[in-house]
Specification:
Length: about 140
């Protein structure tokens, strides 16, 4: 059986990451952990989860992936949870990450995006208004 890990950005709602980890029996490691890459060579399947609504989180994931060694025979997937999703932005974000992972030698097995709810900032208030009964924003 393949040994799996999911690297998560530490400031996200981790529900999706932990759900996926449970389904594939993967360890969860946050990308900012001091020893995040200490057992990297032991994993066969490596997932990356991050919200990309802000460029800061996206850039942090890119920097983390850039630190990874070149690999052979490793599979990878990426996923995001975001509330405001632009199809153009999502494709651009994924293209950069997927190209970087491909150049490192990974075999990309999946990439996907799910809608989520903001848990911080003014966007949380907008989400709450959109999801409440009665008045909805257009």
């Amino acid at each position: 059986m393949a040994k799996s890990v999911i690297y998560l950005h530490p400031y996200e709602d981790h529900t999706l990451g932990y759900t996926i980890a449970d389904k594939i029996n993967a360890q969860v490691i946050f990308i900012h952990a001091e020893n995040a890459l200490s057992n990297f060579d032991t994993y066969d399947v490596i997932g990356f989860g991050v919200g990309m609504d802000t460029g800061k989180k996206y850039k942090q994931l890119i920097k983390f992936i850039e630190k990874l060694p070149n690999v052979k025979n490793k599979k990878t997937f990426i996923f995001t949870t975001r509330r405001i999703t632009s199809e153009i932005r999502m494709k651009k974000d994924y293209e950069i990450i997927l190209n970087l992972l491909g150049n490192k030698g990974f075999t990309i097995i999946n990439d996907f995006n799910t809608k989520g709810f903001n848990t911080i900032s003014i966007l949380k208030c907008i989400d709450e208004m959109n999801s409440s009964d009665g008045n909805h924003l257009p």
